[in-house]
Amino acid sequence: MKRFVILLVSLITSASLVGCSSVNQAKEKPQLHVKWPFYKISKGNQYMYLLGTIHIGKEEMYPFPKQIKEALKDSQYLVTETDGEGIDRGDYQKSIDDKVFLLENGKKLNDYLSKDSQAYLMERAKEYDVDYQSLQDYKLWYVVSQFLNAETADLSIEYGVDHQISQLANNYYVNDKFLETPKEHFEIIQQAYPEKEADQLIKEIPPIKEAKQQLLQLFDDFVQGKIPSAEDTPITDFEKRQNQIIVVDRNKRWMKKFETYLKSGDVYFAAVGAGHLEGKDGLLTYFNENGYVVEKVIK
């Protein structure tokens, strides 16, 4: 179940995916000392910046350190995974609802679930205070995302690194670029969470207490600089396939774009999920293997 949480959090880039953007207005807390996974990538006179992110966070992580702010000011473009905020806007949202979120041809979620899995989902729905019947029309990926509610762990997408770095880029008048369109992003999620695997994946939804512990552990690991890679945790064949879709294949596509950015003459600041950085198929390895100098900016 831990792997389930890690992989799903790695895909959350928009508040539209989970209802967890509310903010705790409690009294001010001491600032956290975050060991930021922040790198300068260079070859000759060409360079870019790479920041590993977590899509959920806390207010006390900020402000960003001076090195990150100065690097962003030095950049012409901020590159993020997808236009997460754009997903929620106007005509685009209307155009994707039926095709992306809802099951087709009159299908219901229970059509893909055994009686045992239906009972498990009903139990989790009651525990999470989610309307069980309201889930029936939705695709599997959207259903499971409803249970990964960061608010249960006092975390927020508003204070996720992606959202905060995008806000700072707006303040600095840095232009946006995206590695994936919202359509491409949703297609990746659908591939990773197909309905044919629903009977198995529904049972991966953890009890709410366990989910809270896992989310907090994931957050604490990020703060402490413990960045997971695909090799860290033994996983099943199905989870390996998910990891291939969510991490490995995307890294290979992104790497081609990063090399194009580096050759452009402009300075790019890329901010992607920290889980994409480490390991044999991580971006840092790919940069090293292709002759780039990888320098950690904040030691």
From TrEMBL:
InterPro entries, A to Z: TraB/PrgY/GumN_fam (IPR002816), YbaP-like (IPR047111)
Entry keyword set: Signal
Signal peptide positions on this chain: 1-26
Stretches assigned to coiled coil: none
Highest taxon of source: Bacteria
Entry keyword Oxidoreductase: no
Pfam families named among the record's database cross-references: TraB_PrgY_gumN
PANTHER family in the cross-refs: CYTOPLASMIC PROTEIN (PTHR40590:SF1), CYTOPLASMIC PROTEIN-RELATED (PTHR40590)
Protein name: TraB/GumN family protein
Species per Swiss-Prot/TrEMBL record: Neobacillus mesonae
